[in-house]
């Protein structure tokens, strides 16, 4: 009898808890919101939420669990994952180990979000946070899930906005094999990544725009990219380190930007090894080419074979050796600029 009374008492307590929960002001407001607003308005409201807020609201309504899964453009940064807008907003008083803790926490939240993401389609993925190779498992899983759901636009901006020590972590090693035989990607922007070159890579068949920023570039990598990007129209190399002579050979390329680069001088003013790295451009349909180098750096030796080139922009201090302009017969606009010292 005592056991039966105890069970009945616990049952009544559970009913009262459920009743209180259902009658809580927050739950009542959610029910009212669901009944009064059409689906399109609720979806629009959810589209304005940060990812952390989307997950929190799913606890208020069973229906809303599915709403945040409808987000097709996934943007992971300090604003959407924490309560800061930029790296500079982090408290300056934080010890360095706590700042590194932000990186681990960011990677964990990103991983958990993708683990519970139930959307059928992902249109774009953008990560804007200084993650390194120690977080490669979370980044790899993010990319793999995006590929499985037909992602078309990928941005991995993994460099800090400051010169802090937090930026000294080893760069993320991006295995291009993740994208092998994957044809839906049309735009990719990689920052502070180390590209692992597979021997049998085949991908990027529909890639039209490629931006490499703070990436080490050699001829083997460029040859693999150019041969696989059969529809590449826009190509940007921003602040990239050339480790060898390079040839950019692409018949589909329309716009090429090689910016914020250059040949470093030694302390005595001499050119550092490798000396006078040459950039050869073979692009039969190239219409626009922009080149700029850092202040006090020397311009690369260049050989440009682009008969359709109509717009050429150059910014630099001086030429290390003559630049091959002899074939630029159709150029209608040339901009030459010298940066201020």
From TrEMBL:
Residues 133-295 form the At1g61320/AtMIF1 LRR domain. Gene3D superfamilies: Ribonuclease Inhibitor. It holds the Pfam family F-box. Residues 35-64 form the F-box domain. PANTHER family: F-BOX DOMAIN-CONTAINING PROTEIN (PTHR34145:SF28), OS02G0105600 PROTEIN (PTHR34145). This is F-box protein.
């Amino acid at each position: 009898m005592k056991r039966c009374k105890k069970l009945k008492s616990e049952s009544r307590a559970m009913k009262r808890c459920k009743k209180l929960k259902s009658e809580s002001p927050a739950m009542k407001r959610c029910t009212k919101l669901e009944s009064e607003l059409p689906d399109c308005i609720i979806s629009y409201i959810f589209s304005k939420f940060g990812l952390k807020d989307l997950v929190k609201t799913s606890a208020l309504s069973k229906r809303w669990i599915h709403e945040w899964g409808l987000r097709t453009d996934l943007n992971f940064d300090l604003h959407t994952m924490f309560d800061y807008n930029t790296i500079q907003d982090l408290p300056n008083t934080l010890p360095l180990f706590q700042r590194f803790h932000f990186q681990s926490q960011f990677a964990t939240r990103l991983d958990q979000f993708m683990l519970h993401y139930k959307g059928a389609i992902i249109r774009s993925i953008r990560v804007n946070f200084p993650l390194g190779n120690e977080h490669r498992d979370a980044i790899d899983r993010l990319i793999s899930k995006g590929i499985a759901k037909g992602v078309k636009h990928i941005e991995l901006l993994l460099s800090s906005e400051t010169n802090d020590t937090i930026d000294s972590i080893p760069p993320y090693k991006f295995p291009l094999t993740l994208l092998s035989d994957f044809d839906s990607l049309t735009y990719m922007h990689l920052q502070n990544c180390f590209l692992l070159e597979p021997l049998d890579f085949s991908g990027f068949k529909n890639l039209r725009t490629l931006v490499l920023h703070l990436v080490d570039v050699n001829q083997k990598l460029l040859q693999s990219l150019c041969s696989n990007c059969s529809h590449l129209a826009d190509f940007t190399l921003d602040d990239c380190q050339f480790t060898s002579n390079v040839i950019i050979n692409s018949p589909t390329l329309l716009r090429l930007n090689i910016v914020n680069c250059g040949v470093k001088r030694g302390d005595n003013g001499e050119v550092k090894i490798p000396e006078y790295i040459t950039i050869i451009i073979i692009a039969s349909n190239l219409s626009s080419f922009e080149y700029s180098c850092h202040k006090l750096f020397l311009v690369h030796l260049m050989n440009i074979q682009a008969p359709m080139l109509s717009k050429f922009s150059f910014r630099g201090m001086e030429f290390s050796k003559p630049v091959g302009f002899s074939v630029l017969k159709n150029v209608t606009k040339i901009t030459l600029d010298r940066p201020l010292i």
